[in-house]
Amino acid sequence: MKKGRFGIHGGQYIPETLMNAVRELEEAYDHYKADPQFNAELAGLLNEYAGRPSRLYYAGRMTKELGGAKIYLKREDLNHTGAHKINNVLGQVLLAKRMGKTRVIAETGAGQHGVATATAAALMEMECEVFMGEEDTKRQALNVYRMRLLGAKVHAVSEGTGTLKDAVSATMREWTNRIEDTHYVLGSCMGPHPFPTIVRDFQSVISKEIRQQILDKEGKLPDAVLACVGGGSNAIGAFYHFIPDPGVKLIGCEAAGRGIDTAETAATLSTGRIGIFHGMKSYFCQDAYGQIAPVYSISAGLDYPGVGPEHAELYDTGRAQYVAVTDDEAVHAFEYLSRTEGIIPAIESAHAVAYAMKLAPQMEKDRILVVNLSGRGDKDCAAIARYRGEELYE
Amino acid sequence: MSKILNVFAGKKAFIPFITCGDPSLEVTEQLVYAMAGAGAGMIELGIPFSDPTAEGPVIQAANLRALSGGVTTDKIFDMVARLRKHTQISLAFMTYANVVFSYGTERFVRQAAELGMDGLILPDVPFEEKEEFDGVCRRHGIDLISLIAPTSHERIRMIAKEASGFVYCVSSLGVTGMRSEITTDIGAMVRLVKEEKDIPCAVGFGISTPEQAARMASLSDGVIVGSAIVKLCGEYGRDCVLHVSNYVKAMSEAVAGA
């Protein structure tokens, strides 16, 4: 297999200007991932600062109400900054620091990755600039303020659809403009090699912990692991250490938006086809001429027309299954989990909760489902209230 | 033998870029005739892409204008077929990997070759990924143009060795767009290329004035200008042809005199 490929997917489809930067990153990563001192420092940050390991919580009321498989929630929402994003960011910013970089830039959709990057930059004394689609700065105004409070500069990206894909493009453009002192902290398992591998490795702490925790609690592996998929970083993190176990079903939940039979969807694997964009070969929502589609989801974090190349490969080989969950189903799950377990999930994570609600009742009671609860939902409350017709001012 | 080499035979070339379909394919066709008449050595035809990550704001906006006007790859092929009845000026397509890949790389390149296109420029296909496109291009006699950048350093030799047609020297960091000054040592980049291979080098990104063009041409074999021309197309719309023609004439003269 060619370097940086997952089956036919992945690669490095980027301007020549960036090639030495990604090569330098790859060399640094290959060096530091085997460096005990780097790993000890990262483990220290993950444990003492981010609050790892995150809990694997048995959702007893939900399990009882649904009347099927036992449901466990992997509580990534309890991490510092409120989502799984911090796992990757601490690793990348620490790496950037080792590489002698003094400035980090990042794209963000819902704002969770931007907040995590701004947080790590504050902690490690780095300059930080975050690019966020203009539409998303409105949907997630609170996160914009959090980033500014943490000392980051936030750029509202008005090009294109003003959402996550345009934020990624703007950050790539900024990186070609200033490379020497700057590291691009890519937030998902996507983009050119080595990003999909680096992000997956830093997020794979999730499945490493789930594996140990479920063996401790149940003495066996789960029957299925569910996670929402936009670019796919929390999902690849939750899947990774289960890939060699054929008995563990891996289920990625994409955002169907208003439905996969409408144009207002972001379900890449259900509706897209293979293409080349944002540095990688993978599946993309696009028209007959390869123009990238203006996708839609209520969730700013899943509102992306592509998917990471390792998911594309897991899809091609059938090792993972990908399902589409609509806005309506996700909002219902958002409310359901809040009422039933007293846990307000991120609207992104609610997509995985929604599919678990469908799946669990069809399974025997001795079966086990693990849902990766990738983030907390405080940031979404105003938007969900508006979705339900209630005007709420933050 | 690459047809593009003729463009640089015994002279320095001015290479204008326009986005097909901005403001319309009829105007694009007229622009090609006018620019050929005004002294352009070769013309880059941009096939618009929804998310052109190597472009600055001027060409980004042109891409979106063209796409919202309904331009497609097939309509652009039809236009090239029309204009090939009237002009034999050297032509290269400049677009993004996904436009070619999603059309079917083999089908795209075969049709482009049949239409009499000479080159293909894909800014998001670096050396490491070029084989997937270059193999097909070579079979059909189209030059896949290699790019080098101010950050390429030791990569320049490797890239030059396998380059065909000409080498596109990216003058500055960042995306396309006009710049008040260019600080990269273009002469050194060009010398590195020539040490490896006897191939023309044209400089692009950030050039807009005849003075800049003359200076860049004195260090290389040609000058590529996009944003300054696309800006005229945006400003004057359907009436842009004369403005572009005058500009190309001034730039071509500056390059030829260098």
Query: Which structural class do you get from the secondary structure elements of chain B?
Result: alpha/beta
Number of strands of chain A: 14
When the domains of chain B are counted, the total is 1
Tell me the span between the first and last alpha carbons of chain B: 27 Å
CATH architectural name of the largest domain in chain A: 3-Layer(aba) Sandwich
User: Between the first and last Cα atoms of chain A, what is the distance in angstroms?
Assistant: 51 Å
**What is the arithmetic mean of pLDDT of chain B?**
96
> How do the strands line up in the largest sheet of chain A?
3-4-14-9-10-13
Question: Helical amount among residues of chain B, as a percent range?
Answer: 40-55%
Give a concise summary.
With 394 residues, chain A is of the alpha/beta class. Chain A has 16 helices and 14 strands.
Describe the structure.
- The complex is a heterodimer of chains A (394) and B (258).
- By secondary structure, chain A is an alpha/beta fold.
- Chain A has helices at residues 16-32, 36-49, 60-66, 85-98, 112-123, 134-139, 141-149, 164-177, 195-203, 205-218, 233-239, 268-271, 309-317, 327-341, 347-359, 381-387, and strands at residues 5-6, 9-13, 56-58, 70-75, 103-108, 127-133, 153-157, 182-184, 224-229, 249-257, 273-277, 279-284, 320-326, 368-373.
- Chain A folds into two domains: 5-46 and 84-199, Rossmann fold (3-Layer(aba) Sandwich), CATH 3.40.50; 51-82 and 204-387, Rossmann fold.
- Chain A has 16 helices and 14 strands.
- In chain A, strands 3-4-14-9-10-13 form a six-stranded mixed sheet, sandwiched between helices. A four-stranded antiparallel sheet of chain A has the order 1-2-12-11. A four-stranded parallel sheet of chain A has the order 7-6-5-8, sandwiched between helices.
- In chain A, helix 2 (36-49) packs antiparallel against helix 4, helix 5 (112-123) packs parallel to helix 7 and helix 14 crosses helix 15.
- The longest helix of chain A has 17 residues, at 16-32.
- Chain A starts with a strand and ends in a 7-residue tail after the last helix.
- Chain B is an alpha/beta fold.
- In chain B, 47% of the residues lie in helices and 14% in strands.
- Chain B is built from twelve helices and nine strands.
- Chain B has helices at residues 4-7, 25-37, 57-68, 73-83, 97-103, 105-114, 131-139, 155-161, 186-196, 210-219, 227-236, 240-256, and strands spanning 13-19, 42-46, 90-94, 119-121, 143-144, 146-148, 167-170, 201-204, 222-225.
- Chain B has a nine-stranded parallel sheet with strand order 5-4-3-2-1-9-8-7-6.
- Chain B starts with a helix and ends with a helix.
